[in-house]
Structures are given as C-alpha cells and as structure tokens.
Amino acid sequence: MDEERSPLRQLNEKPACHEPAEKSALSRLPVPSVKRPLPGKEQSAGQNSLRQPAKKRLLDQSDDKAPPNKRKMVSASVVGFKPRPPVMSQRPAVNPVYKTSAATVAGGPSRGAMKKPVAATSKPAAPSGVGAASRRPGWDLKGKMSDMQMKVSSYQEQVQNTKTQNRELREEAERARRELESLREEHSALLNKMSDVQSKVTSYQEQIQTISQENQGLRERGDRAQRELEGLTLEHSALLNKMSDVQCKVTSYREQIQTISQENQGLRERGDRAQRELEGLTLEHSALLNKMRAYEMENQELSSLKRTLEMDLSRERALSAQRLQEVRELTQSNAEQTDKLHQGEMERRALHNTLLELKGNIRVFCRVRPLLDGGQQQSSFEIQPQDKTIVLVKTEESHIGKEKELHKYPFKFDHVFPPQCSQQQVFSEISLLVQSALDGYNVCSFAYGQTGSGKTYTMEGPDVLAGEEMGMIPRAVQQIFQAACKLREQGWEYQFTASFLEIYNETIRDLLVSNKTPKKMDYEIKRASPTADIRVTNLKYIPVSSEEEVLVLIKLAKQNRSTARTQVNDVSSRSHSVFQLRIEGKNAARDVSCNSILSLVDLAGSERVQKSQSTGDRLKEMKSINASLTNLGLVFSALASKDGFVPYRNCKLTYLLQDCLGGNSKTLMFVNISPEIESFSESLNSLRFASKVNECVIGTATANRK
Q: Of the candidates 458, 501, 461, 8, which has an alpha carbon nearest to the alpha carbon of residue 264?
C-alpha cells in the first residue's frame, strides 16, 4: 500500500495551470449521490429564460441556433452524464471533439478557455430524471447554498459511518491480538508438558519396574498434546478467516473513498460561484480528508499486524511439530524398554525355577515350638543351623536295666528353625516358592506334626491376622497380590479365586458357608477331564481382588473349623483344613497366559490313643486323622520308590492334593515338633516321617502356560 497512489491523493493533486487555486480547493468537496430536486421544476424553459439576465438570454438564443448534436454535448457536460455518440453519418465534418483528461471533462472548461459560461447555455428539452430536475438558475445562489448544506450533512453522516466501521475494525484487531496471546499461553503450557515428559522418561530409565505405568502417562499426554495442536490449527484457521473479513472491509472503505473522490470532481464544476459562502465547508471537508488518511494508516498497521501474527503462528506450528516428533521418539524408546523388561521377566522366571529345582521340588522344613509357660524341662536336642541338622538326645536305660545309655537321633532337612525364629524369618524361606505360583506352577505347603506342636500357628497365626505374628497363609496372600500389582505394569492381568474347606472324618465341609445353613450339601471330588484341575462339587469358589477380601474369608473359615479339647491340647484341630487360591494370569500384548493353584494345608495333629485317652467322638476323629496321615505317608513312599501306582484315592486328602503332590508341582512340608520331654516319642515319629518325605524326588515341574 506504500507504493500505490491513493485515488483520493490523485484527485487532490494540483489542477492544471490555467485553473485558479479557488477552484482546486473546491474540488475536494464531496458530491451527494442523490440530488435535491429544485422547487418549481414544472415551469417551462421559457419562463426560466425570462428570469435570467439579458446577456444570458442572448447566449441561450445563440446556443439554440447551434446544431442539435452540439447542443446535446453541451447539455451532457452540464448535467453530468455522457451521451451516446452519434452515428458516423450524423457527425459534423468540422470542429471534431478531442479527448481531454478526466479532470477537464469532469470539471468542464476553465473561465480562461471559454468565454461563455457553461451554466448560462441553453439546452434542449432533456428527459425527465434526477439530473434534469436538480438544475437551478444561475442567479439562485440561496437555493444552491441550501443544496450544498444538505450535501455536507450527508457527507458527515458517511464520515460518521466510516468512523464506526473503523472502530469495529480496531475491536476485531484487539480480539485477534487476545486470541494470539491465548495461543501463546497454550503453546507455553504445551512446552511445559513436553518438559515434564522428558523428565519422566529419564525417571523411566532409572526405574525400570515403573516404566510401563509412566509410559501410559506419556501416551495420555501425547494424546492431549495432539488434541491441543488440533485446537491451535482450528484457532489459526478462524484467525485467518477474521483477517480476511478485515481485509474485505478495508477494500470496501477504499471503494467508498474512491466514490467520495469522484463526487468531489463534480463539486468542482459548481464551486466557482459559491467560493465565499463555502469556505467554512471547505475547511470541514479538509478535516474529513485528514481523518480518512488517518484511517488508511490504521488499516496499514492492521495489515502489518496480520502479517506478524501469521509469522508467529507459523513458528509456533513448527515448534509444535518438533515436540510431537520428540514424543514419538520417546514412545518408541519406551516400547523398546518394555520389550527388554518382558524378556528380563521371562529370564527371571526361568532362573527362579532353576534355583528351586536345584533345591528340590519336595522340600522339608523343621520348626521347633518354643516352650510354653508352665511346661516341664524341655527334651535334649541340638540344632545346627549351618548343617541344617537337628539331633534329639535322650538318656535311656540299657536292655538289662542297670546302665543308662545316651541315644542320639540325628535328622537333616532343607532348613531347621530354632524356637526363637519369628514368623517373618520362616516365611522368607518359602517366599520364593510362593512366587512360583504366580509364574504358573502348582505349589503346595502343609504343616505336619503332633497335636499342640504349633501347626495352626505356623500356617494361620493368631486370631488377629495382622502384625509380626501373621502366619504363612496371610503372608503368602499378601505377597501374591503385591507381586501381581507390580506385574500389572508389564501388561499382566490376574484373576484370583479362593476356596477354604476342611476334611473331617473323611467328610468335606465348606468353611465359607455358615453352619446355620439348614440344607446339607454333598461335596464330591471330581476331575472334569484328564487335563482339567480337580474340583469339589457344590464348593464355594469366591473371586477375590485384594488381600483384605482374602483375610475376611480366612477369619470366617477359622470360626467354622472343627476343634475340641483333648488331654494333649485344650484347642485341638480335629480336621485337615485346605486353603486354595487359583491364579489365572494373562498378558494380552504378548499373547501369553498361565494358571496355577496355591494350596496351603494345616493337617490335623497326629497322636496316640494311650496319650490322648480319647473316647467316643474324639476316638473316632483320632482314627480318621491317623488313617489319612498314614495314607499320606504311603503316597510319599510310592513317590520315593517311583512306583507305577500311587494310592491317591485311598483318602480324600491325598485325592484332593493329587495335582500338588505329583510330578508337575512344587511341595513344601513343615514338620513341627514340641520341646517337652513327654512329647519326645511323638517328635521322633514326626521327624522320621519327615525324613521319608525328604527322600522323595518327583522330577522336574513344568509351568501351566499357553
């Protein structure tokens, strides 16, 4: 716009040298679009001519004698419209009309060039219209003054409208500026988010265990960044549309100014005779022109601001594209780290299984119960933790009854826990075995020993399932859910199902069902297919999703378990309790799944009739308990000798634990012994039974994976 010459400036340039300065000043006056009709236009041309001075009438008469086509041209120059050119045959042969400049045609000849005033020339009867009706006699200066005042009022209204439109343009430019600031703030927020993403990626590399969760956060932030980028693009398009509207309005203003300039050319024809009266109006018109130039300068500034905004927006879009590329690279890096983490988890499981196979798939731990308050002197035994050996020592009379001999009974197991060992120390030795259940291996752990040797305390703990005295069952459940939560970050999803039953007198009872239930259910151990797991019909299998839900079930089972008082123990468990947690894991991203069963068993206490002095129902319970423990020993003997037939179905306990005692499992046995002297023979029998179990080799376990 700087190089172009404004049409208004061209019109206001200095006129030709033969025109006076007053006429140039009058050329700036605007011409109204609608002319004011003159009063008394119905009067004839003859009456108008009588009112003119005599000199003008003579001039009119001389013009009437002129050729018709010439009169028509003069009339057209006065009225303001261009007549149709005559046909070639009708054009005069002499005095051709030469082309003149726009200013000369619009303004008419100067007073120095023509002797006759144009306004005084007569014209033939023109067609009725605006131009013909707006003519006034030359001597009617007062009417012409009134017409000029009406035109100036019209011009002022147009200028006021122009101001309003320019004010609206400035408001639209201000809104565009605010929208740009909003875009910059959103871009700054995007940069901050990108910085957070980079810092989190650094944290992912340092802590591989939490990389999957933070990777999910990166994906969500990348999606939000993409949505914000799309929002920026839409806002940019809206800003371009608004700027296009502003440009159209500026173009409209220029056309209006051009129209005003053309109207000013018409005013130059009538400005000679009204110079003195229109000096004040001329000053007002000059002021209006100055304001219009100021508006043009503002429009130029708006155009420059638009170009600046477009450049800023282009830079912002380039930066956003660069940040988006960085996010994609970080996402790819996270995917690679996730693959490495999955491979590391598979290698860990393989090494973990190899370590447990080296230790043996059937392991035996011996735990000595502390001496209870009020008990007699404990029997002599020696514990050698380094050699994993326990030696029972007792002084007995010789066969002839005269000399006393010292008898030692050494036993070696996978681990021996002295009386001062805590529950946490005991669980730390079996935590690796519990982890194998999540890896897809069947795991079984059971406590064996005489009544009152601490089996229930070892497996379940006290009545309050919290604190340092929690047993193996609640601790194993706690470890299972904590490990599953960590594996969820690597894409593993686990489902858990819990069941709790007891075998009382070779009858299965569901410990998760209240004893007040009137209907007695029949429970039967069945295997649906050779490859399916063993299940108990009508038994409640409850889905669980947290450690707290399992602890509630354990409390309910402890309340429903069968106990009674005997000569050996005030609260003796009269049944075998079996807690089973079925684990089903799936990694959809890797198309890998596994399932396993974690069985934790608290066996009923073994005892002799002479010592317990049981009668009635207690005697019947003791016979059933000893029979099932004897069958358990027969199963381990068959496994140790690798017999072709293993008598699992001799009792319901071994039939239910068939999947956990066979070759495709990992088994742990706790043998609990009492330190009292009167329990020496029972402790010796328990250690001998545990030694036979420790000699069993059931082969290599395989994971249940698909």
A: 8
| Cβ proximity of 391 and 410 under 8 Å | yes
- Alpha carbon distance 431, 651 (integer Å): 30
Alpha helices in 511-565 (DSSP H): 547-560
pLDDT tens digits, one per residue of 57-79: 545 554 555 454 444 443 433 33
492: left (phi over 0), alpha (psi -120 to 50) or beta: beta
User: Quick one: which H or E segment has residue 583?
Assistant: strand 576-587
Give the helix ranges, DSSP H, for 564-616: 609-612
pLDDT digits (tens, 9 = 90+) for 646-692: 898 889 999 998 887 766 678 889 999 988 888 888 888 889 988 88
Enter the tokens of residue 510: 């569901």
CA distances from 266 to 76, 108, 404 (A): 13, 10, 150
The phi and psi torsions of 386 (rounded to 5 degrees) equal -65, -40
- Could you give the C-alpha distances from 141 to 123, 251, 270, 282, 575, in angstroms and in order? 20, 38, 11, 17, 132
Cα 468 to the center of its chain, rounded Å = 41
- Crossing angle for the helix pair 68-79 and 54-64, to the nearest 10 degrees: 130
Digit-coded pLDDT (tens) for 335-361:
766 666 666 666 666 655 665 555 557
List, edge to edge, every strand of the sheet that includes 380-384.
Answer: 380-384, 389-397, 404-412
CB atoms within 10 A of CB 20: 14
**Residue 416 and residue 640 in contact, taking contact as beta carbons nearer than 8 Å:** no
Q: What does the block give as tokens for 592?
A: 């890998």
Rg over CA atoms, the chain: 56
Q: Which distant-in-sequence residues (6+ apart) come within 8 Å of 341 by Cβ? A: 208, 211, 212, 490
Q: What b/e readout covers 174-203, taking b as 16+ CB neighbours within 10 angstroms?
A: eebeebbeebeebbeebeebbeebeebbee
3-state DSSP assignment of residue 139:
coil
First to last CA, the chain: 76
pTM: 0.52
| Structure-model confidence comparison of residues 169 and 396, the more confident one | 169
Tell me, what amino acid is at 3?
E
Tokens of 208: 């591989």
Looking at residue 75, its pLDDT comes to: 40
Burial of 495 (0-12, 13-18, 19+ CB in 10 A): middle
SS3 375: coil
**Contact present, 585 and 593 (Cβ < 8 Å):** yes
Tell me: the pLDDT tens digits for 98-111?
Answer: 444 433 333 444 44
CA distances in angstroms from 672 to 140, 278, 585, listed in the order given: 136, 126, 34
pLDDT in tens, 12-46: 444 444 444 444 444 444 444 444 444 444 444 44
Please say if the pLDDT value at position 205 is more than 80: no
Query: 669 and 363 in contact (C-beta within 8 Å)?
Result: yes
